[in-house]
Fold each of these.
Amino acid sequence: MSGHLPVMVGEVVAQIVPMDGGVYLDGTFGGGGYTQAILEAARCTVWAIDRDPEAIQRGAVLAARYSGRLHLLQGEFGDMVALLASAGVTSLNGIVLDLGVSSYQLDDPARGFSFRFDGPLDMRMGNHGQTAADLVNGLNERELADVLYELGEERASRRIAKAIVAARQQAAITTTGRLAAIIRSVLPPDRSGHDPATRSFQALRICVNDELGQIERALTQGMQLLGPNGRMVVVSFHSLEDRIVKRVMAEATGRAPAPSRHDPRGLLESRQPRFQKLTARAMRPTDTEVLQNPRSRSARLRAMQRIASPEAATP
């Protein structure tokens, strides 16, 4: 597991509560940190999904160590129902999702995720589809600005998009180093110490991998797969991710705000919630963990549990 530190792993396992004979899904295998912790906590089975073929390849060592108990599936976690159905799995005792990019991907210059290294402008978590270079060189100025603003929450999106379009007229932008330099040339240093390219790189990565759409599909499908008392634990790393998780869990647990009296949905009979919250609010990493692993500082953990029967629901 060198090169990858699973975030809030103790808190994740405490919320999942692995039990002997249970069947669990790690929807974002990555370095296998959560998977290994679950397998160590009980004599259970874990199915692990990752769209990155390199992650699946790395996981072969762990699968051999837990022979018969760990099964790896290459694919997108937003397709978990179909992936698991193909393996004959239709019900789970728990699901864990660690959203965003893995340390392995960030730290490999050849993957093109980070502005800290110069490499090809790729950013694909898998091995197919459009790259970040395709977006940077193909979108028009307005489309590019919209991506940076909506997915990176970048206030200077129009200024950056204009600079990118001007630069690509000289030569196509194909490396992370050149893109980062273009962004830095039009933005002052961030007072927080964050690189000016941070939000733009995040936006392009999210767009390339359809990360928000994947999260929506994974949460919906995960709820379908959880059996009675099954638990879902999600760790997110920025506001766009956490906003989706918070909303979906609020709706599932009956805690979503009531519709306006002018909204026709308010006339519909309210349904008993199918899930109950396990975390009243998002859990945060400890100060000690943040010191040991600075990448954990923005992590938010939310969890919920399927109610065994509607009658067991609490108001």
Amino acid sequence: MKILLHACCAPCLIYPYSRLKDQGNEVTAFFYNPNIHPFREYKKRFETLKIYAENFNFPLVYDKKYELIDFLRKIVFHEAERCSICYSTRLERTALLAKDQGFEAFTTTLLFSKYQRHDLVTSLCNTISLRYNIPFIYEDFRAGWHLGMDIAKELDMYCQSYCGCIYSEQERYDKSIKMLASTNDKLKIHRDTNYVHNVSDCHQK
């Protein structure tokens, strides 16, 4: 089967690509990630993937335009839904290209990362598949997470430290956000503990 595999980065591509190839599929990687910020980070991830494709001789297609402005216009004032918008933007483009270029199905390396919202990605892919009448190949590629990361390290491959968008970059490095998240977690534990104690007290009365 001819499959178009959306690739968010080289390390996340390793296991899904080899897995699909081992199943006898003809796989082409597609790099389309306008969410990645800043441009230097975008370029570094793309160049890493391009070098990997050249060294291991597999087909890679990509959009030469860096569509950050269009991406941000979709997100601003809709930050609470930013992951859904981000996924949909990339996956729709993948499905449309697959349909236009005669591929038999599409899938994504987003299903590999344990940091992504797996169920949301799967649901969106199924919806997009029906909308554009192009099959979506589902597999929980997270099973190969450690193998893929080990190979990436062996190849001395650049591995990014945040998802890609400007919001995730802040969440990764802004200590005030980490402190707030930690405080909220502690408050939640405190509330849950108090709730358990209160329920226990009620049963004792």
Amino acid sequence: MTNSIKPKKLAFCITCMNRLYHLQQTLKKNILDNYLPNDVEFVLLDYNSTDGLEQWVQHTMQAHINSGILVYYKTTDPEVYHRSHSRNMAFRLANAKILCNLDADNFLGKGFAAFIIQEFATHDTIFCTNNHSFNDTFGRVSVRSEDFMAIRGYNEALKSYGYEDNDFMNRLMKHGLQPVCFQDPEFYHYISHSDTSRVSEEHIAKNLSEMYIAYVNPYTSIILLRYNDNSTEQYTLVDNVYVYGFSEVPLSIYEAYLDEKVRIVLQGDVVKGRWDADKELPTIEVENHTFYKVQDNDFRIRTIVLLTQAINFNEVYKQMKNNTIVNPDGFGKGSAFKNFDVSHKIIIS
């Protein structure tokens, strides 16, 4: 996709699927705290929300759209939230020299845009991120558009929550860039929320009917998922921290996040099948293991988070080991409408 309009210096790229309750708190304030309409744009990609996001933007944010600081896009294609694809799509829709991922629950803080613009004006081979405090600002990564394109965006093989930011930053460093961290406490405010909000729109949580768990030993568990269509997936999780301890933690924080010895990881491949039972059962027997049905929703959500992190880590580790190309068939593909103009569909190929 090409854009003939002169690019701005910086675009904050927000993706949102049914998180209007967060945007209602953050979007206006972020714009007002960083109101540089000649230099900055906020790109909001409505990832097929059904919670009234489009109506809210149209009724309350039109003045910011008119000023050019806010650009609203909506895609009606996705059925579930795919964080890597949605970010790639928003980044490619943006028209700016610097691209910054901005989660819907983040407050930028006053002057963050000016800070980022200045950092990139004075350094050539950098990307910018937080100070590794591992809170909900960890994904606020700023990168030049040409570097984003050069590393082929966020890894769309990572379909759920976990490691997409780590993988992205690791590939930026392999591309020759150095991380620069923002330090001002003003830039670190965000809305605390549950893991349910974090993963509820993603594939597993949205399609899961039942979860069962079998305990093999103190560091190994088997997770059995039954989906609404009666398909099943079975994963074996191993706590490598228990197995290896912390004796070999790498020096680099990015390497540490990509080291299998300090992670809960998958053992073997996913086992797929079909559900044969006629009714829900509190326990089932599979291959000499007793599986207990997970009844507590909080435990179920926490397990989904651990599982998706392990699945994504496994994919990153495999790609790094085999030195395979990320997103070989392209990235951020899709269609969207801009600023409520449904007569003109923008195609990203």
Amino acid sequence: MSDWTATDVPDQTGRTAVVTGANGGLGLETTRALARAGARVVMACRSVERGERAAADVRRDVPDADLAVRELDLASLDSVRAFADGLNRPVDLLVNNAGVMGGPYRETEDGFEAQFGINHLGHFALTGLTLDRLRAVETPRVVTVSSALHSRADGVPGRVDEREYDEWRAYARSKLANLLFAYELDRRAEPPTSVACHPGWAATDLQPRGAELTGSRVRYLVTRAANALLAQDPEGGALPTLYAATAPDVTGGGYYGPSGFLSMRGPPERQASSEASYDREAARRLWRRSEALTGVDYDLPDSDGAEARTD
């Protein structure tokens, strides 16, 4: 896979993909590549207006792109349920891509700390509510986008003290939760195949948006400058997602990221995530807690006895 690019995405004709956060950044480039390969892409976006503009952008490159823009606010479990209820066909691929990074303490509509609630709980609920649609096809796949910063996580994902809130600690914990979930889903459910990935450092609006929320103009400008000087473009950042989503040699429980310097850029490769991400008891505890918090019961057997994949 050393020279793998978006042109190597296999033919996706006849397949339906759901991509969260499809209106910009990595989600938009993932949508563009999947549409170019022939997939029907459901663009799950918090803003339908921005989603429609993104769809028009894709159609300029892929005139025959089969796209459907649907509203999905991962900060609202009601919105997640409404989106899932509106899926009227089987789903071959679910890309859990959307997320937030940094910023001051905020809560979702349901009272969860925003980074944990959006990055993990929203996607946990969406995947569970889409599971029947996924299992209606022969080779379904779920890709959950994490971050290399997950390795900095300490403590239990989702547990925060807003009086001593550290946005980067909360972000790292939410990204660790993504991995614990992705691996546990693969141990519990067969199908779908569940894998995870990270984009390295990609220049998207994610970083400056978090800086902007802090109200710090200096931090915002520094983040913009760092993206311009050091980061790869969104097309490069989307490659691990596209590989995890479509490559035929991908196996369940895998973790994919850029193969270049410090895993910040370059063609995708299979990697190992942090030791904490393979903690099966922590994954089971998070799973049970996530079911309780979201009210979404997967009705799947416990993962006791399933093999952990750490390669």
